[in-house]
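Researcher: I've been going back and forth with a colleague about how Nucleoside diphosphate kinase might be arranged in three dimensions. Neither of us has a model we trust, so I'd like an independent prediction. The organism is Sandaracinobacteroides saxicola, in case that matters for your notes. Sequence below.
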Amino acid sequence: MAVTRTFSIIKPDATRRNLTGAVTAMLEGAGLRVVASKRIQMTRAMAEGFYAVHRERPFFNDLVAFMISGPVVVQVLEGEDAVARNRAIMGATNPANADEGTIRKVHAESIEANSVHGSDSDENAAIEIAYFFAQTEITG
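Model: Here is an independent structure prediction for Nucleoside diphosphate kinase. You can compare it with whatever you and your colleague have in mind.
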């Protein structure tokens, strides 16, 4: 397996409950290394741009409102097959369907407030990383 990078967001429901460290510990425990991290307050324009692929979906406005409702922690994670590894530790989008021991099973409040976002492919990881980070901010 090759060492790759992926993108992660610790969402407002998790930062509100002071779970940044707990979520990061689970990511690191799964073999991922944080090579960039920052706590930000997304603007409406940032959230709308990031989730533009969902613009026509009925949940778009609620998703944007949720993502700007509080601070988030955006991270670049590195490890062997990072996208798949991150998706495995995150668990299913719906925490009721997530495996025991996954971030969403342990920390999510609901399908909407599910604590984390992770890239779904290497291609999207590169796009999402570039959306929030300059190359000079990524060290590893």
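Researcher: What would you highlight for our discussion?
Model: I'd start with this: The mean pLDDT is 97. After that, consider the following. The CA atoms of residues 62 and 112 lie 9 Å apart.
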